Amino acid sequence: MAQFGFENDIHSILKLDMPITNAPMARWQRKASSSNASALSPGKSANVSLSTTKTPSKTPGKNKKQTPSKMGGDRFIPTRNSKQMDVASFLLTKENETVDTNEQNATSENQKAMSISLNGYNIEEAKILHLGGKPLNAPEGYQNNLKVLYSQGATPASVKKTRYISSTPDRILDAPELRNDFYLNLLDWSSCNVLAVALHNCVYLLDASQGEITLLMKLEREEDYICSLSWTKEGSYLAIGTSDCQTQLWDVYNQKHLRSMASHTSRVVSLSWNDHVLSSGSRSGHIHHHDVRVANHHIATLTGHSQEVCGLQWSPDGRYLASGGNDNMVYVWPRVQDGPANQAVHCWDEHQGAVKALAWCPWQPNILASGGGTSDRHIRIWNVNSGSCISSLDTQSQISSLVFAPNYKELVSAHGYAHNNVVIWKYPSLSRVAELNGHEDRVLSLILSPDFSTVATVAGDETIRMWKSFELDPIKKKTKERLAKSTSGVIHQSIR
């Protein structure tokens, strides 16, 4: 009862139905009083008595004023009914009541479940500012239908993923009695994953898959030595150039010496295969073509270089033979059946040092890379179709070997004085990607593995180092293997 009495008192205080006695005078009252004061001015005293005795004229449209009917009615005051007061009183009294904990827990659980179903997360646990830690993960199966119109962050397609390149070799092998001669080519890697290395007058084979090392051959005379090695495309046969002007052919699987081909007058320092034709370069400056299928193997002689031919490489498509020599020249020769054998397609003299390093681009057969010796130290990229030099780079070091790495489209160079290291360049920009340091003497040769993931280097410090720098990531590797399987399946079907 006390509560309702309190409400009635408040209601009576707030009720404004009665006129306000202490309110200011209304505007129409102020105007009427001012008009009466003007009628009593001194200049019009004679007419006052007459006007007071007469009734005012009721002429339509004159002196007609609409005035409020009640005093104090010039402001609008909202009506406050009893229902609003009842609601306010209920809310005030409910704050002081004790709430049942069970009922509160049930309500909070219901709100949490409803929030999760609507928003995907509990809204009471969400944070407006998240200063650390991982962001909240969307629930499984959640799809956001909103489209991003603008973003300052880089999109996933434009983000460049950098791979990790180890600065230490994967394997290190001792190579005792290795000849520290810049002009020799003492290392080659077959398509069957067998690495051949020449140590003085012996040739050793390393099975890179099993790790087994076998002795293939040894020259009879101790003063003779191995000058060059080259595998056939199938990896079954190995050509060996010697200091006694011989070119030997060996069956690796049977470890059998097949034949010796004598045609040069000086040591054979470079070899390169093109199907059944073996090309050899010697200190005399001559290049000989050998058809290993016939008894009269010497089928052509290329005479262009004036000094030792230390670099020799056939292009991937077999159309051109590139040769580099100690006379600082680079020649490009055609196949025997495509034109005169002794007429070069191109002859470049831009290098200022011996050109031993030659490499054809596997994904662009018309691109040739060449590297100069100590007096030059430049990598030059040539377009064989146009005969022009596309780009040139000063490496500040002697270049002994070049190879293209197709997995990441890069160019790898081996260096002698003064850096004695291996450098990976991005092609075609020739920007430096990484340096592989570890050799204590000049790097003599560099060769790429058949899966294009590893490079092997041999140096004057009598060590062979294997650098696993070009491994594909698992996704790219699976895609490449799947493509290879599909291609091989098509080949088998066509054969059958």
From TrEMBL:
Segments of skewed composition (Low complexity): 51-60
The WD repeat ranges on this chain: 219-260, 302-333, 373-392, 436-468
Keywords, in A-Z order: Repeat, WD repeat
Superkingdom of this protein's organism: Eukaryota
SMART domains linked to this entry: WD40
Biased composition (Polar residues): 31-50
Residue ranges constituting the CDC20/Fizzy WD40 domain according to the UniProt record: 173-467
Entries under Gene3D superfamilies matching the protein: YVTN repeat-like/Quinoprotein amine dehydrogenase
CDD domains documented for this protein: WD40
PROSITE patterns attached to this UniProt entry: WD_REPEATS_1, WD_REPEATS_2, WD_REPEATS_REGION
Residues covered by region (Disordered): 27-79
InterPro entries: Cdc20/Fizzy (IPR033010), WD40/YVTN_repeat-like_dom_sf (IPR015943), WD40_CDC20-Fz (IPR056150), WD40_repeat_CS (IPR019775), WD40_repeat_dom_sf (IPR036322), WD40_rpt (IPR001680)
Family classification: Belongs to the WD repeat CDC20/Fizzy family.
Protein name: CDC20/Fizzy WD40 domain-containing protein
Protein species of origin: Pagothenia borchgrevinki
